[in-house]
Design goal:
TIM Barrel; 3-stranded parallel β-sheet; single chain; about 375 residues
Length: about 375
């Protein structure tokens, strides 16, 4: 089975890419007797990095990429460190320089003008976006983008502007940071056990608490707050002192400086776990904030987490022919094509050890494979 899959992969790469050095290919193969999906992803990534962007664009026919980040900082961010790896300013600037060498930066308005259709662009292009509306967007990211002449869109959660709330995953990271730096006492462990509903996993030590916290989701926010109380972690104090989000005045300055702003839900839920009415409420209210409070002429929305599992009914409501609520929407499925032509997929840039160009090339190689097997299109029910 391993040999069969190995030869299949090699045959695919030869078919798609013309040539791949067999010795390099063999070095990419996993050691041992298992061939898992992550091994195939690793091979795809390595092969993609051997090829030029020009070649990858020609193979896939995809002229447009939409890279996205959350935060750029040289600081240790306790509310993020336990969630994903973020880049520092030097790495970010290198990322931007590599993108500029291979792609033309375009504005959100240019993207809206072509209805998100890459085949209407004259050359390989990119539009960069940033999720969650963190204050580093105004203080760190925007000045770098301005200096390099790169337009960008910042997607904000309307419920967190002016630090009026805190994303539940940031709360989890703060608790994990506290556990990492402090020993969990027997009394704290007992108190947290008593908070758990019947049938919850047994909590024997700090490691089991960590595992529990990592698996808590949007609907468990009450539990997260109770666990924080046990450890005497005051999220309100953190928000007032740290100010993790941009203020309204910072966002307005971004607009004055030529950047664009989009909606990202009210408080960052997982859409696939919401009923359709809740999905629409989260979307409409955040769009309304951007439109009415920030007074921008365009309407764009990026899904928090992912658009996976979101139905056709949701998009039919947003793209109502008589009165569409949005100009464009954005997901996180790399270079896949969506069944809704104005819903565009983006490539994640943080949370990985790869540079931006490596991530982009890996996405292109994956897209080539997906096209060959007919799985390059997001289908919805």
């Amino acid at each position: 089975m391993i040999v069969l899959v190995t030869f299949l992969c090699y045959d695919i790469f030869i078919h798609l890419f013309g040539t791949v050095d067999v010795h390099i290919f063999i070095k990419m193969l996993p050691k041992g007797n298992t061939f898992k999906m992550h091994s195939l992803k690793r091979i795809i990534g390595h092969v993609g990095r051997q090829l030029s962007v020009t070649r990858l664009v020609a193979i896939t026919g995809k002229q447009l990429i939409l890279p996205f980040y959350h935060v750029v900082s040289n600081e240790r961010l306790a509310h993020i460190n336990h969630l994903y790896k973020h880049v520092g300013t030097k790495s970010f600037e290198k990322d931007l320089d590599s993108l500029l060498k291979n792609f033309k930066p375009i504005s959100l308005q240019q993207l809206i003008d072509v209805n998100g259709q890459a085949n209407q662009l004259d050359k390989p292009s990119f539009h960069i976006t940033f999720d969650d509306g963190l204050r580093e967007c105004a203080e760190v990211i925007a000045p770098i983008l301005s200096r390099k002449g790169i337009p960008a869109t910042f997607f904000i959660n309307s419920g967190f502007v002016d630090n009026r709330g805190l994303f539940y995953r940031f709360k989890v990271s703060l608790i994990l940071d506290h556990i990492e730096q402090n020993e969990v006492s027997k009394n704290e462990l007992k108190a947290i056990r008593n908070l758990m509903p019947e049938g919850a996993p047994s909590l024997k030590n700090a490691n089991t608490i960590v595992n529990l916290l990592k698996n808590l989701t949007y609907e468990h926010q009450f539990v997260i707050n109770q666990v924080a109380d046990v450890f005497e972690i005051d999220f309100g104090t953190f928000v007032r002192k740290q100010k993790p989000y941009m203020s309204k005045s910072q966002i307005l300055k971004l607009i004055d400086d030529g950047f664009t702003i989009g909606a990202h839900s009210i408080d960052h839920p997982q859409y696939q776990k919401l009923e359709l009415e809740e999905q629409l409420d989260q979307t409409k209210e955040s769009l309304q904030y951007v439109q009415e409070v920030l007074k921008v002429p365009y309407k764009v929305f990026a899904f928090p987490f992912t658009d996976h599992g979101v139905s056709n009914d949701f998009f039919d409501e947003l793209y109502n022919k008589e009165k569409p609520l949005v100009d464009l929407t954005f997901g996180t499925a790399g270079l896949k094509t969506d069944s809704h032509p104005k819903h565009l997929q983006r490539i994640a840039m943080d949370g990985t050890e790869l540079t931006a160009l490596q991530s982009v090339k890996a996405a292109y190689a994956a897209s080539a494979i997906q096209q060959m097997f007919g799985i390059n299109r997001v289908k919805r029910k």
